[in-house]
C-alpha cells in the first residue's frame, strides 16, 4: 500500500486483486481499473441495505466507470471504511460555488424562462433551461429527464429582451430585469410551489446584473440564480480533475468579483460576499474604515478587503493552474511525438468540438473503440481526453474530445478554461459535432462557431480545417422535445406557470395572473411565420451523404448510436487529413 500526498487532497492506493462478485449491502467498493487507483470522495462508497448507493458521490462514480469494480474482503472493510468516511465527511460538507447549497441536497429550483420567438426556439430554450436546472438535481441520483414528473416546475414569462415587436424589445429594467407584472406573477407562483413541494431557489434563464439579481431575490423571497451562475455551478459539480476544479473555482471567483454585495454574516454583522438578501453598496459609501471623500484612504474598506481576498485567491489559483498545465502540456507533447503510433513524428490532432450533449464523447469513443465518459446531461465532459485512431489510409491521428459549448457561454468560463480551449485553437483539424435532432440545431451550430471565433479560431481555419458532423440522425425525424412532458400550447396568454405533468392540475394559471403584455397577436403571427422559415425541422435523409454548407465546409450525417455513416466519416476525415488544410472544394477538384 502506498500513500502519497496529503490525505485530504489525493490518496493513491495500490489496490490488490479483490474478489469480484455481485455487490452486497454494506460492501465497500473500490475501483480497480488500474493497479494504482485514485481514491476520492467520488470513487469509493458503500452499498446500502436496499442496494442503492449511500451517497451521490459513489453513484457518480458508478455511472461513470461501469467496469472495474471490486468488493473488498471483510477484514479490510473497517480500515477502508475509515478512509472512505473521512472523504465522505470532507465531501458532504462541500457547498456550491456560487449559491450556497449543500451538495447532499441540491436546490429545488423554479425555472423562469423568458419567452423567445418563434415558438420552436422557445421550446428549445426551455428544454435547455430545464436540463440546466435538473443538472444539479441529478447529483441526488435522480435522472429527471427520464421521468417528466421529475422535471422542475417552470414558468414562461414575458421577455424584456425579445418582445413580440421592436417597440417592446430593449425594455430591460435596469433595477429588476422584468416588469412589475411578471415579478408579481412569479412571486405568486413561488408562494404556491413553496407551500406544496418546497422551493430553494429560482433560476432565471437570462443573464442578470448583481442589482437585478438582488432585487429579484428581495421580491421573490428566494435566492436567484442566473444562467451564468448556474452554468458555473454545474461545471463545479461535474469537475473531476484537479485542473478542472481549479478552472471552475477561478471562473466562480471572476463571477463573484463583479457581484460583491453586503450581507449578514454568521455572527449577524454585515459583510461583503455573495448571498441571498444581501445589499449592494459602493466601495466608498459604507466601508468600515477610511472615512469619506478626499480624507478616505486610511485603512481598507470592507469591499476593498473582499476584493483583495478574491485577488489573492485568484493569484494562488493561477499559480496552481500554471503548474498543472505545465505537466499536462509535457504529457501532451510526449504523446504527440512518441506516444500513439508515431516514430517521432507529430500526429495530426483533430479536435472534436460542438454544443454540449451533441455526442462528441460518443463519437470519439466509437471511432477509437475506447470508452470515454458519455452521459445524457449537459457538460458531462470538462477535461479534454485524447484517443488515437487509424484512418483507412493507415494515417494515425489523435482525436481530442473537448468541453462542450453553449449559447451565451459565460465569459468567466471562457477565461478560466483558456488552457483547455487552447487545445482546440492549436488543433490541426476540427470536427464540429451537431445534434441534428435538436429543434434549434442551426442556432446551436452558430453558437459554437461564435464561441470558436471568440477563443481565437479564425474563419479561415474553420473553412479549411473543419468538418461538420450532423449526429443523431436516427432521432432527427422525431421531436424529442415534445415527449419531455413540456407543455407549450398555452404560451399565447400572459405569464404561465407549468408544473410537471403529475402536478399540473390547478396550477396552470394563465387566466389568473396579470400580464405585462400589451401586444396584439397580429404581430406575433407575422413574426413567427417570418422566422419559422429559418427554423424548419431537419430532414434526416438530407444529410446521410456528404454535402456542403454554403461556406464550403463539408457536412456529413451520422448516428453514433446506430453506427450509421461512421465509415463515410472516416473516409472524409482521411481525405481532409491527407490533403492538409485547404477548402474541401479544392480537395475534391
Ligand atoms: N439517439 C442518439 N443518441 C446519441 C447519439 N450519439 C450520442 N447520443 C447520446 O447523446 C448523449 C450525449 O452524448 P455525449 O457523447 O456524452 O455528448 P457530448 O457532446 O460529449 O456531451 P458533453 O460532454 O456534455 O458536452 C448520450 O446520452 C448519448 O448516448 C446518436 O447518434 N443517437
Ligand atoms: Mg462529452
UniProtKB/TrEMBL annotation:
Keywords assigned by UniProt, alphabetized: Chloroplast, GTP-binding, Magnesium, Metal-binding, Nucleotide-binding, Plastid
Coiled coil region boundaries: none
One GO cellular component term noted in the UniProt record for this chain: cytoplasm
UniProt GO molecular function: GTP binding; metal ion binding; ribosome binding
Stretches the record annotates as Disordered: 141-170
Pfam families named among the record's database cross-references: GTP-bdg_M, GTP-bdg_N, MMR_HSR1
Residues in Hflx-type G domain copies: 348-581
The organism's place on the tree of life at top rank: Eukaryota
NCBIfam families recorded: GTP_HflX
The protein's name: Hflx-type G domain-containing protein
Amino acid at each position: 500500500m502506498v500513500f502519497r500526498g496529503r490525505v485530504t487532497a489525493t490518496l493513491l492506493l495500490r489496490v490488490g486483486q479483490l474478489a469480484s462478485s455481485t455487490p452486497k449491502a454494506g460492501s465497500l467498493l473500490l475501483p480497480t481499473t488500474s493497479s494504482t487507483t485514485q481514491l476520492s470522495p467520488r470513487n469509493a462508497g458503500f452499498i446500502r441495505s436496499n442496494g442503492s448507493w449511500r451517497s451521490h458521490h459513489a453513484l457518480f462514480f458508478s455511472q461513470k466507470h461501469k467496469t472495474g469494480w471490486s468488493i473488498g474482503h471483510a477484514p479490510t472493510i473497517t480500515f477502508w471504511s475509515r478512509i472512505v468516511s473521512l472523504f465522505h465527511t470532507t465531501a458532504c460538507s462541500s457547498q456550491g460555488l456560487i449559491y450556497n447549497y449543500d451538495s447532499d441536497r441540491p436546490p429545488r429550483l423554479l425555472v423562469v424562462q423568458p419567452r423567445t420567438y418563434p415558438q420552436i426556439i422557445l421550446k428549445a430554450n426551455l428544454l435547455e433551461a430545464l436540463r440546466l436546472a435538473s443538472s444539479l438535481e441529478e447529483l441526488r441520483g435522480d435522472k429527471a429527464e427520464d421521468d417528466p414528473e421529475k422535471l422542475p416546475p417552470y414558468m414562461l414569462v414575458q421577455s424584456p429582451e425579445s418582445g413580440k415587436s421592436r417597440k417592446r424589445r430593449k425594455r430591460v429594467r435596469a433595477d429588476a430585469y422584468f416588469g412589475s407584472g411578471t415579478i408579481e406573477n412569479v412571486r405568486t407562483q413561488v408562494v404556491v410551489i413553496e407551500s406544496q413541494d418546497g422551493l430553494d431557489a429560482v433560476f432565471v434563464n437570462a443573464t442578470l446584473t448583481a442589482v437585478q439579481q438582488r432585487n429579484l431575490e428581495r421580491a421573490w423571497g428566494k435566492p436567484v440564480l442566473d444562467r451564468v451562475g448556474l452554468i458555473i455551478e454545474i461545471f463545479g459539480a461535474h469537475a473531476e480533475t484537479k485542473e478542472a476544479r481549479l478552472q471552475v473555482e477561478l471562473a466562480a471567483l471572476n463571477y463573484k468579483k463583479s457581484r460583491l454585495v453586503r450581507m449578514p454574516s454568521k455572527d449577524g454583522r454585515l459583510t461583503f460576499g455573495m448571498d441571498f438578501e444581501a445589499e449592494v453598496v459602493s466601495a466608498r459609501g459604507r466601508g468600515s474604515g477610511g472615512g469619506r471623500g478626499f480624507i478616505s484612504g486610511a485603512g481598507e474598506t470592507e469591499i476593498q478587503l473582499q476584493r483583495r481576498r478574491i485577488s489573492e485567491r485568484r493569484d494562488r489559483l493561477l499559480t496552481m493552474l500554471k503548474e498543472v498545465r505545465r505537466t499536462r502540456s509535457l504529457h501532451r507533447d510526449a504523446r504527440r511525438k512518441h506516444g500513439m503510433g508515431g516514430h517521432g513524428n507529430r500526429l495530426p490532432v483533430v479536435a472534436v468540438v460542438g454544443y454540449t450533449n451533441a455526442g462528441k464523447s460518443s463519437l470519439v469513443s466509437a471511432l477509437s473503440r475506447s470508452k470515454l465518459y458519455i452521459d445524457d446531461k449537459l457538460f458531462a465532459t470538462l477535461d479534454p481526453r485524447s484517443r488515437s485512431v487509424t484512418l483507412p489510409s493507415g494515417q494515425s491521428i489523435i482525436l481530442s474530445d473537448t468541453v462542450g459549448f453553449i449559447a451565451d457561454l459565460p465569459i468567466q468560463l471562457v477565461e478560466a478554461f483558456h488552457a483547455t480551449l487552447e487545445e482546440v485553437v492549436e488543433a490541426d483539424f476540427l470536427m464540429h459535432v451537431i445534434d441534428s435532432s435538436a429543434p434549434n440545431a442551426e442556432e446551436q451550430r452558430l453558437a459554437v462557431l461564435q464561441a470558436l471565433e471568440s477563443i481565437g479560431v479564425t474563419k479561415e481555419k474553420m473553412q479549411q480545417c473543419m468538418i461538420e458532423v450532423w449526429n443523431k440522425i436516427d432521432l432527427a425525424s422525431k421531436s424529442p422535445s415534445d415527449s419531455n412532458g413540456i407543455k407549450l400550447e398555452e404560451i399565447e396568454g400572459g405569464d404561465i406557470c407549468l408544473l410537471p405533468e403529475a402536478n399540473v392540475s390547478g396550477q396552470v394559471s394563465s387566466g389568473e395572473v396579470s400580464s405585462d403584455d400589451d401586444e396584439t397577436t397580429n404581430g406575433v403571427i407575422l413574426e413567427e411565420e417570418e422566422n419559422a422559415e429559418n427554423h424548419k425541422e431537419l430532414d434526416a435523409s438530407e444529410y446521410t451523404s456528404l454535402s456542403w454548407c454554403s461556406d464550403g465546409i463539408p457536412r456529413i450525417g451520422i448516428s453514433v448510436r446506430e453506427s450509421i455513416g461512421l465509415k463515410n466519416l472516416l473516409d472524409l476525415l482521411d481525405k481532409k487529413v491527407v490533403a492538409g488544410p485547404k477548402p474541401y472544394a479544392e480537395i475534391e477538384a
